[in-house]
Design goal:
Length: 183
């Protein structure tokens, strides 16, 4: 377990700046590289020597910055360390943050578009089914109307024939048998 803990610490030292805590990959992508950063920008030995210098120096001889850092160290406040900040990344980190934000917005927009497409597809499917159901219903009603119309025409045709036959019989008058002579 101690080995794994030691390996984690060693990996952290190789992959993060001891002073600001920013990952090495950011310096490799956006600055002059991680090695340049830890040797020039945030050399941990420079910070250690500065702290040692403040402990040995007479407080009456401090400059304004030295007084500020010394007072913070006495309170245990380490906020004077540039945590998650590096001058060589200024502006570039903001650009990187903006890219991340835009990527997140794009991803969110893409998810919403996919949801809308899913709803549109479901609506189209439902609309198509309901449209077909309505067509089937209307075809059934049309067939019933045609059938009823045909029956009506047949009935009316029979009535018309009966009426014409009746009219012909009334125009001719009563039919009598011819008289036969008696004789």
């Amino acid at each position: 377990e101690l080995r794994s803990e030691k390996q984690k610490v060693e990996e952290d030292i190789r992959s993060r700046c001891f002073i600001c805590g920013i990952e090495s990959s950011q310096f490799d992508r956006q600055a002059d590289g991680f090695e340049h950063h830890i040797k020039n920008d945030h050399n941990m030995w420079n910070y250690i020597f500065f702290i040692h210098y403040l402990q040995k120096k007479d407080p009456d001889e401090f400059t304004g910055q030295e007084s500020y850092v010394h007072a913070m160290m006495r309170k245990g406040d380490l906020s004077f360390f540039p945590l998650n900040k590096a001058v060589c990344l200024e502006g570039k980190q903001e650009d990187d943050d903006q890219v991340k934000e835009l990527t997140a917005i794009h991803s969110d927009t893409q998810k919403r578009v996919e949801q809308v497409e899913m709803h549109v597809t479901a609506f189209q499917s439902q609309f198509t089914k309901e449209n077909q159901d309505m067509r089937d219903y209307l075809q059934g009603v049309t067939n019933k109307v045609v059938e009823a119309t045909a029956k009506r025409h047949a009935i009316l045709g029979g009535l018309y024939a009966a009426i014409q036959k009746e009219q012909q019989s009334t125009q001719e008058g009563p039919k009598m048998r011819p008289l036969t002579p008696i004789g």
